[in-house]
Amino acid sequence: MMRLNIALSLCLFPLLCVAQDTATPIAQDISPTIVFGPYEYESKPDDEAFDEFNPMKAPAPGPMLLSKGDRLAILGDSITEQKRYSRMIETYLTVCYPQLEIETRQFGWSGEKTDGMLRRLEQDVLRFSPTVATLSYGMNDARYRPFDWVNGRWYRDHYTAIVRKLKASDVDVVVGSPGCSGKIAKWVNAKNGTLEEHNLNLCTLRDICIEIANSEDVRFADVFWPMFKAQVLAGKQYGQPDNPYEVAGADGIHPGWAGHVIMAYAYLRAMGIDGKIGQFTIDMNDDSVSASDGHTAKLTSAGTIVITSNRYPMVAEGSLDDENMIRSGMMLVPFFEELNQFTLTVTGLESEFADVQWGEQIQRFSSVELAAGVNLPKAFPSNPFSRPFAKVDEAVAAKQTYETEQIKKVFHGAEGKRDIEAAATRTEAIRTPLAKAIRDAMVPVTHTITVTPSK
User: Does the structural domain 2-270 have CATH classification 3.40.50.1110?
Assistant: First the structure.
């Protein structure tokens, strides 16, 4: 009966009709996209680990969801309370899209399921009048066991209720799927089911999230499928017997930084972010230069431009084979290509190659590469934005750390139980300067790019 319940899940329906192939940055998805009845399914990598998984095709991201002055609430369980993907989202919106002036709060609560958020939604979240909310629930709702329809309906009902309550308060919603498991959680006393069955359960909850998003006309963020693919494929590519590459984290549930990059990517894409942060062009024929909105550029000598930027790219340094490095996670999904475009284009080069100096680093590119456009933060992990970016990110981390204390210790502690309104007023007086520190850290950056033709 257990196996029958799993076999009935959306992730395990038979595959019948062929559509088209797609690819991921870490492996080719060679199986076709599949249509079964009214459903279209995701393509799959050629690896036996994916044989039993047939996830529903995720809807494409819609247009830009965010407007100037939006108040973003990031809701979720202990994975959100880790303050990693939530921190990346807030830092990204602060430095990459400062013109939007988005105010962000995170509301992560360890061990929480959808029913828990539903109970505290009014007091903890809606009191701050959010205009956009991201939801990240499902890991605890899956109950660390194989899928069953009773629990699936329970999850659908409670997740839908959260969405509807937010919509009733004029909040735009992004429904996020759970991530994947890398191990059976150590706190699961009864070893109920295999790791594959746990992930099939999470995959089915992912498909339920798609159905909720479609039926409620809200956005969907696919966390499970890209994370599961990365867990399997990057684990084989980078992992060593004595040093595994664990996208889902050392405990198999709470991702390291690489896994959180996948989560941040999923939510930012679901919000319709286009990732076009900066575009700079140099024409070596006539020494003309141009820069996109948010930047000014001037030519100071042949091949050298000085730029003042009010928008930053995301900066990430570190090894690609370490799941605790943000840069490693950025290579598991098309983060640079879709969310972090900070591009230099050089035309009119008479030489086959040119050396590009940005800050203290120099890289050599072909004239073909430069004519097509070089994504600077991808090519230059350490760059002139490294220190300014770190200051903003540190300020974001400090504010989000206090937000956890504000909600968990104060609102739900003795002070909040005595007088929640007084507690909110007192704690907001502490949070306000922490939010201001983020804005103060976001200062214009002046940087220089020099292009030197070479043989």
Answer: yes
